[in-house]
Write a structure and sequence with these properties.
This protein is an alpha/beta fold. It folds into two domains: 108 residues, Rossmann fold, CATH 3.40.50; 105 residues, Rossmann fold (3-Layer(aba) Sandwich), CATH 3.40.50.12500. It has eight helices and eight strands, in the order βαβαβαβαβαβαβαβα. Strand 7, helix 7 and strand 8 form a beta-alpha-beta unit. The relative contact order is 0.17.
Length: 246
């Protein structure tokens, strides 16, 4: 009997290039007995940069969780820093479902008393603040910095966005008094190790953090609780474009 386990890593936007970046970051930290299935929706938004985008992306996340369960995935990672559709995905899944923002914030508090976040557009600073409140980390976060570039700038090959991430991380270390920095976008996943070495403090990629959390929960024999609000959705027939979620 094989002891291998499949973890599905969902990029909630439709960018194949970003899905590849996220998949590489996940495989780089996955245990020897873990296989990574990196996927993205066939339909939806090319990038997620606001509440509207998140609402659309959440449907794609749910479709992918359903498909992942059918393919034998034992756990799931939502690889967008807004954690779109996280609680709904937990209702659908029996195994653990971890969002990269929640994972990164948890990990940051384990290695530092204060952390900073580096994100993309200024509007996503507000969304990150909402998540800090939701997850109970407001008092742990010293500051949030935006590179003021869209998400897909991380995939344009110019290196401009990556350099801006680097500069904001340097600024955060110099000005915030933080012991760690959280990268606030799944598309930044491949930058964490190099920045950690350069800055001399933990720079946390939520993709890797979430993969290791899912592995840990599986090793502990823990899945999503089906007692209470995260029980499977109440049975009802969905109609129209949502029939595929039946």
């Amino acid at each position: 009997m094989s002891n291998r386990q499949l973890i599905q890593v969902i990029n909630p936007n439709t960018s194949l290039a970003m899905t590849e970046t996220i998949g590489r970051a996940a495989r780089a930290v996955a245990g020897a007995n873990t296989d990574i299935l990196a996927v993205c929706p066939a339909q939806g938004v090319p990038s997620i940069e606001g509440h509207f985008d998140e609402a659309i992306a959440a449907i794609g996340v749910l479709e992918q969780v359903k498909a992942g369960r059918e393919q034998g995935a034992r756990g799931h990672v939502i690889a967008c820093f807004g954690d779109p559709g996280l609680l709904a995905a937990r209702e659908l899944a029996s195994g653990p479902v971890v969002g990269i923002a929640e994972a990164a914030m948890h990990v940051a508090t384990l290695v530092a008393t204060r952390f900073s976040i580096v994100t993309t557009l200024p509007r996503t600073v507000v969304i990150a603040r909402h998540l800090l409140q939701q997850y109970g980390f407001v008092h742990h976060c010293a500051a949030i910095h935006a590179i003021d570039l869209p998400v897909l700038a991380l995939e344009d090959g110019s290196g401009v966005a990556q350099e801006k991430v680097r500069q904001r991380c340097i600024q955060a270390k110099r000005e915030d008094g933080s012991g760690a920095i959280v990268l606030g976008c799944g598309g930044m996943a491949d930058l964490a190790q190099e920045l950690t070495r350069e800055l001399g403090l933990p720079v946390i990629d939520g993709v890797g953090a979430a993969v290791k959390m899912v592995e840990s929960l599986l090793a502990l024999g823990l899945g999503t609780s089906k007692h209470g609000d995260l029980d499977y959705p109440v049975a009802k027939r969905l109609s129209g474009q949502f029939e595929r979620l039946n």
